[in-house]
Amino acid sequence: MKFTLPAHRPFNFLSVVNSHGWRQLAPFSYEEDAYTLAYILRLSNGRVVELKLRDGVEGVLVETEKLAKTERKEVAEKVTWMFGLDMDFSLFYIASRLEPKLASVKKRALGRVLRSPTLFEDVIKTILTTNTLWGATKNMTLKLVNELGEPLQDDTTKKAFPTPEAIAASSPGSLKEKIRVGYRASAIHELAVRVASGQFDLEALKTSELSTLELRKELLTINGVGPYAAANLLLILGRSDFIPIDSWALKLVSYEWYSGEPITAREVEKRFEKWGEFKGLAFWFWDWKYNE
What we know:
Layout: E1 2-6, H1 13-17, E2 28-31, E3 36-42, E4 48-56, E5 59-63, H2 69-83, H3 90-96, H4 119-127, H5 134-148, E6 151-152, E7 155-159, H6 164-168, H7 172-179, H8 185-196, H9 212-220, H10 227-236, H11 247-257, H12 265-272, H13 279-284
Antiparallel strand pairs: 1-5, 2-3, 3-4, 4-5, 6-7
């Protein structure tokens, strides 16, 4: 079946798909030639389906197998979240209109970042990006999905992202040995246990009315989430008050303003301080000089 989900304008499908590296992390996959983003989704009733997501008319075209009414509603809600279809960036566009380095943000409908259907998945993936190379992040994520994810009925090689319950039923030792997540094993397992047991309603943070500072404090209570990871997750949650500063961010800012000389996080913050609540977005979508 096929159906289209409308987006708040302006919207650009490829701008969201290419907003960061999430499309390369299982259970996402991207067909370059067909401009199709695929995702293996486990529905709340336990059914696993494959979504084929393409550019629609001012929105996202969803193609999948036949769904019941409640399943279609769930898929629509998940895809709306994944693409931020209801998000409004008009204030960011107004704030950035006179900045040459952000001159194309409105034309290209920049502002949205691709998200996973659950915050749990995005937190785990963010933890897997810390203190490692991108290739290792992709490998760890793929192994986690293949080892603990539930398979698509018609193609068992394709699996959904594992549930908190599945990861909680594992152990830090198993995660370290089989998934090769290293020191992150205890953090991943601890979060899964907290979520699976109902101790931590992580998904509630998606719609939390907490201030950004309070929301950041909540994210920082998660083992394995430091300032960089918290800023990254805030951006995913639609809060752009903080910049995810890692070695890559330092390199970008260094080559932009400091001739490639070593800098600290303070210099990054200083350069984007004037953007206030939009500084995360300004940083993320800046037209950088450095292009590795």
